[in-house]
Amino acid sequence: MRVAVDSPTPARPNLAEQVYARLKAELNDFQLVPGDRFSEAELGLRLGVSRTPVREALFRLRNEGFLDVEAKAGWSVRPIDFGRLEQLYDLRIILELAAVAKLCAHTGTPPPELESLKAIWLVPAAERLTDGREVGQLDEAFHATLVRAAGNAEMARVHWDVTERIRIIRHLDFTRGHRIEATYTEHGKILRAVMQRKVDQAQMLLRSHVEQSKAEVRKITLATLHEARERSAAGR
């Protein structure tokens, strides 16, 4: 008689994914900043998990360029490679300009994604959000939606990869109150130009908008990151 045997529950990969997501969020929220050091044992104790899922998550983050590891010194948050970030911003601009050109060349009914963006960004000033974290998330979604609406899945995939790699810089951009208001204004202008199929105007506005974020890369110092961590801790 054949006895059915249940397959083991794949708990470890799920747990490693949870640890990975938690640590990546801490990097993006400045709870971990360049130069911070820690061990696998320390993280496991803090997160309440064994060293195996912690190690899997850490090596994944190392492969993505966020962490370094040394045999005796343990793990550390890698210094920000500003030159690489600027290159990623250049790639982002190319992708978004191409997406805007495709959207402006579109005939017929505008893609439904644009309608969803109107409901968020073309609102009265009194209805605008003021929380930097929320606006930062919506900013990511705005640009990702523009690219996705252009209808090229591979372009959207590459763009999202770039988005994930520059997220820490974008978060810093929204720790400044005036950038929140400026983002609403600039997104509104970009969206109206796209809806009116004014390709030159839309691309000009988009390039200027992204270049402003790119400029933040040049202003960031380690002190800025530590200050951001202090503000983040105070807000929790």
Keywords:
236 residues, mainly alpha, three-stranded antiparallel sheet, 11 helices, 70% helix, elongated, disordered N terminus, DNA-binding GntR family transcriptional regulator, DNA-binding, TF_FadR/GntR_C, Tscrpt_reg_HTH_GntR, transcription
Structural overview:
The chain contains eleven helices and three strands, in the order αβααββαααααααα. The chain has 236 residues and is mainly alpha-helical. It has a three-stranded antiparallel beta sheet. Helix 6 runs parallel beside helix 9 (177-195) and helix 8 packs across helix 10. It is elongated, with a radius of gyration of 21 Å. Mean pLDDT is 87; it is low at 1-12. One of its GO terms (molecular function) is DNA binding.
Q: What Rg do the Cα atoms give?
A: 21 Å
- Output mean pLDDT: 87
For this entry, what is the oligomeric state of its chains? single chain
Strand order of the largest sheet: 1-3-2
What string, H for helix and E for strand, traces the elements in order?
HEHHEEHHHHHHHH
Helix content: 55-70%
Q: Give the biggest beta sheet.
A: 3 strands, antiparallel
Unreliable spans: 1-12
What does the overall shape look like?
elongated
Count of DSSP helices?
11
The chain-level structural class is: mainly alpha
Ends apart, CA distance between termini: 59 Å
Strand content: under 5%
User: In total, how many beta strands?
Assistant: 3
